[in-house]
Design a protein that fits this description.
Elements: H1 14-29, H2 31-41, H3 45-55, E1 59-60, H4 61-68, H5 72-84, E2 88-92, E3 100-104, H6 106-116, H7 124-127, H8 131-144
Antiparallel strand pairs: 1-3, 2-3
Helix pairs in contact: 3-5, 3-6, 4-5
Amino acid sequence: MKSTGRLDTTRLSEADATWRLIVEVVMDTRGEWRRKVTDATGLPFSRIRALWRLERGPRTLAELAQDMGADAPATTVLVEALVERGLAKRTPHPTDRRAKQVSLTAAGRRMVDVLERIEDPPPAPFARLPTAELRRLRKALEDGS
């Protein structure tokens, strides 16, 4: 495995080296897109990440925190900000009286629609891959979720 200059992958397994290179590509190419997203929405990126996760369906605060790799207090603050802006709502959990669910409002769904319209082309290393390899990679990522 060759080194990229910043990241020495020579002593890693193929899976570890590939993963680290994917992370490096993502970290190096997302800045401009993140700026476009925050400019278009007026939201900090952490709130945008929450909107995407809530688009999949209602989540408890604990589920959302786990999905985002955040702690409960930070997630509570984040959700409160979304609720105050009318982008999310809290409702009683249908089967657990102790829990609340968080879901998108119509305004939250419209905000996700705005996000999805922001151009987000794949980085060059992905754009150059043949379609068959991209399908294999996509399937491996979907199956691992």
